[in-house]
Automatic annotation (TrEMBL):
Signal peptide: none annotated. This is ChrR-like anti-ECFsigma factor. InterPro entries: ChrR-like_cupin_dom, RmlC-like_jellyroll, RmlC_Cupin_sf. SUPFAM superfamilies: RmlC-like cupins (SSF51182). Residues 10-111, 129-214 form the ChrR-like cupin domain. Pfam families: Cupin_7. It comes from the Bacteria.
């Protein structure tokens, strides 16, 4: 399967208006944003766990990172409430579940295969001081990518040169970009050479962003 698989094109998806599709596991549904492959895939997806649902134990050969958007995600390593960012690098294994139900934004097979750094962090706890209406946290940085969380005050401008491509998910509030309104759940992907420039709406905004990685995009080995 290929979905939004041309990384030289700009893609904007309103994930909140995208249809849920059942996964192979009962009680787990997906909104696919981009994908190369079948069940083993380089994929960016919104995943919804019904209360009490779970996956079997599995290993992430290509790595997994995710943000908990709603509810509490759980596995044998801990409980992760909304607002948590988690990186499970290649070779890590877990048995995911959610007792009360949750929704996550998850990316698979997008790691440096030599990466072994596993961690989780509450994104809001990592932000630095406010500068020009923007408070940021660098969640992860390596030779291939930079992962960032930002909180924008009303009317604040956010710019990133985004070398190597960029993608962004609006977590809260509204952002304006080139005459378009990006609301909560909007997922934007810009190819290498395109900078990200957005301005927060009257209630401010929160966003997650990854830059540099798209020049390395490929199907799972």
């Amino acid at each position: 399967m290929e979905l939004n698989a041309n990384f030289d094109e700009t893609v904007l998806v309103d994930s909140e208006r995208t249809e849920w599709v059942a996964s192979p596991m009962a009680g787990v549904d997906r909104r696919m944003l981009d994908r190369i492959g079948k069940e083993i895939a380089r994929a960016t997806t919104i995943v919804r766990y019904a209360p009490g649902s779970r996956f079997s134990e599995h290993t992430h050969s290509g790595g997994e990172e995710f943000i908990v958007l709603e509810g509490v995600f759980q596995d044998e390593h801990g409980d992760y409430p909304a607002g948590t960012y988690v990186r499970n690098p290649p070779t890590t294994a877990h048995t995911p579940r959610s007792d009360q139900g949750c929704t996550i934004f998850v990316k698979l097979w997008q790691f440096d295969l030599a990466d072994r750094t596993q961690f989780s962090t509450v994104m809001a706890d990592a932000v630095g001081p406010v500068e020009a209406g923007v408070a940021q946290a660098v969640l992860h940085r390596d030779r291939r990518e930079v992962v960032t969380y930002a909180q924008l005050d009303a009317g604040a401008a956010f710019h990133d040169a985004a070398k190597g491509g960029v993608e962004m998910l609006v977590l809260e509030g509204v952002l304006n970009r080139e005459g378009e309104t990006l609301q909560k759940g909007a997922w934007l992907r810009l190819p290498s050479g395109h900078a990200l420039d957005v301005v927060a709406g009257p209630e401010g905004a929160k966003l997650w962003m990854k830059a540099g990685h798209l020049v390395h995009a490929r199907a799972p080995a």
